[in-house]
Amino acid sequence: MLISATAKLYYQNPYWRECTATVLQQITDECQKNWVVFDQTIFYPTGGGQPHDTGYIGKQKVLDVEERDGVIWHQLDTPLTSDQKQMQMKIDWERRFDHMQQHAGQHILSAAFAEECKATTISFHLGQETCTIDLDIKELTDEMAKEAETCANQIVFENRDITARFVNEEELEKYPLRKKSTVEEDIRLVIIPDFDYNPCGGTHPNRTGEVGPILILQWEKHKGHIRLEFTVGKRTMDLLHHKHALLRQVSRVLQTNEAGLLEAVLRVQEEQKRLTEELLQVKEELLTYERDQLLSSAEELHDRILITQLYEERPLTELQKVAQLITGQATNAIVLLITGGVKQQFVCACGTGAHVEMNTWVKHILPRVEGKGGGNVLIAQGGAASRYSLEQILEYARDELYMLLEK
Ligand SMILES: [Zn+2]
């Protein structure tokens, strides 16, 4: 059955929130979704960068709205019964008006960029929280953005008319369009007199004052263009409220007012840097103390000294540091530090006067503890299979060291 095009009431009056419509057809698609066509509708379908409306038709929730060949299809959460012919439609007005603000705000901002910066808008995306436009320029400075934003908000403050009318190609030529229409017939022109003439199928408020504040948030380079993020209308107010609350919270935490905030943050940063340096110094002192403790517990080994120690759990890097502090202090020292934890690991180090090769020692220990490791003559390290206790590792390492020294 051929269905005639749906009468689009949102073009007659974008402020209509409710209407009655007659059911023309209902189908269930291959994904088990219910779609209904009416003689007329106030539900705007996805298109022209604007998301579809939601709302209710009778008691049924409208989940999606699509246009195909002039026919508007409404996806309902449950099918209509055969006796449901005349239905009451109601759109989610808050969502629609938000879309109207974002869409018209985009027209104004794009026109302002064209006017102030000779930058053409090549695409628009209306997102859940913010909107973006892609501008056909390579660079955007703070000054340029500020000028365009000021110009856009000036148009809002002047509360100019926004009108929309369908024109044919001939009439279209009379208007100073910034971009060519993508459709050839039923061209809908959205007009802000003496400012912007834009072919667009979206919904817009009647006056620029209803658009509300336009705020540029940030921009970045994207595929050779500039992608600019902004908010319009109530979204701008919500965002500013949120930011203001956050600033107040942070000010309270830092015990300052908004004007002193930056200074307070810099002070905290400076203080943290100082404390980190102090902490490093204290750690260094602790390690030195530990070095001296370990040196005092050293056992004599011919003309060398041997220092061994077991740890429940310590990072290998810390053990290397302690070992090197000892061998730096006592050149005849041989150090073996073993730690448990996630892995059993050990560090072997010696001073330049000890005359033993640490990598050779480790190479002899490894087969006995089923481990892997390596290093150089002065410091080497290895891991052991988990079934060997720290005491066993120590015992095997000692055996190997005595054998090495006897050679
Ligand atoms: Zn539009």
TrEMBL record:
Domain Alanyl-transfer RNA synthetases family profile: 1-242
Domain of life according to the entry: Bacteria
Record-level Gene Ontology MF annotations: alanine-tRNA ligase activity; aminoacyl-tRNA deacylase activity; ATP binding; metal ion binding; nucleic acid binding
One GO term (biological process): alanyl-tRNA aminoacylation
Recorded coiled-coil stretches: 265-292
Keywords for this protein: Coiled coil, Metal-binding, Zinc
A Pfam family assignment: tRNA-synt_2c
GO CC, alphabetical: cytoplasm
Localization per record: Cytoplasm
Requisite cofactors: Zn(2+)
PROSITE patterns found in the cross-reference section: AA_TRNA_LIGASE_II_ALA
The keyword Zinc belongs to this UniProt entry's keyword annotation: yes
Protein's name in the database: Alanyl-tRNA editing protein AlaX
Source species of the chain: Brevibacillus laterosporus
